[in-house]
Amino acid sequence: MAGAFGKWWAFSSRAGVSFESEVWADLHSLQEDSRRGSSFSSIRLKLVPGADVHALIQRCADDPRINLQAKTESEYYKEQSGIAANLRVLGLLVAGIMASLPFLLP
């Protein structure tokens, strides 16, 4: 599939994985096409079996050239589930208020 300005990007989708779709493209071309400068929203790395994940995270943290909050996939989803729990409480509160409105209004 061609990118926005004629550059070739590859798209794939695999069911049953944590990320259902991927975009394979030249980084600089993709940044130019999306007018994002040199920033990223997120990046996912797949390490070889036996690689020291925590050493990589520490190396990213120690390198001043890298502005990155590195974390494992399980840590990421643990944070997301905490945020989802807070949203659930807010949703239940709003639902409770809306359910009680008919009893409160004349």
What is the strand tally? 2
Low-confidence stretches: 1-6
Strand order of the largest sheet: 1-2
Shape: elongated
What number of domains? 2
Provide a concise account of the structure shown:
This protein has three helices and two strands.
How would you characterize this protein structure?
The structure is a single chain. The protein is mainly α. The chain has 2 domains: 1-44, no CATH class; 48-106. Helices cover 47% and strands 8% of the residues. It has 3 helices and 2 strands, in the order E-E-H-H-H. It has helices spanning 27-34, 53-62, 73-104; strands at residues 10-13, 21-24. It has a two-stranded antiparallel sheet with strand order 1-2. Strand 1 (10-13) and strand 2 form a beta hairpin. The longest helix is centred in the C-terminal third of the chain and has 32 residues, at 73-104. The radius of gyration is 21 Å and the shape is elongated.
Secondary structure layout:
Elements lengths: L9 E4 L7 E4 L2 H8 L18 H10 L10 H32 L2
Antiparallel strand pairs: 1-2
